[in-house]
Design goal:
Layout lengths: L1 E5 L2 E4 L4 E8 L7 E7 L6 E6 L5 E3 L7 E6 L4 E6 L8 E8 L8 E4 L3 E6 L1
Parallel strand pairs: 2-11
Antiparallel strand pairs: 1-3, 3-8, 4-5, 4-9, 5-6, 7-8, 9-10, 9-11
Length: 119
Amino acid sequence: VQLQASGGGLVQAGGSLRLSCAASGRTSSTYGMGWFRQAPGKEREFAAAITWSGSAYYADSVKGRFTISRDNAKNTVYLQMNSLKPEDTAVYYCAYGLGSINADDYDYWGQGTQVTVSS
C-alpha cells in the first residue's frame, strides 16, 4: 500500500486547509485511516482517525476544528482543518491501518505534508 499526502501549506491563524491522502496498491475493503502530526522538537501525536465504517475520532486539541472524512470510491481520506492556530504547525502524516488513535495500529505511512500556521 502506498499513501500520497497533499494539501499542506502556509496559512494565517484562523484560516483553513484541507489535506488529502490517497491510498493505492493492495488496499483492503475494510481499512481505517488516520492523521498524525509532529511539530519540531516534539513527539508525533494523534490528530484524527476514521474507521472503515466511518466512525471518526479526534484529539481533544483539534476537536471542533478538524473534520476527517473519506471517499471510498477514490481510496482517499481528507482532513479539513478550520480555525487553524500556530500550535497546529507540524508535519502531518497519514496512515493506513485500523483507524484508531494508536500509531502502532497502522501498517503504512505517507511521506508527510508540512502545515505552517503564522500568527
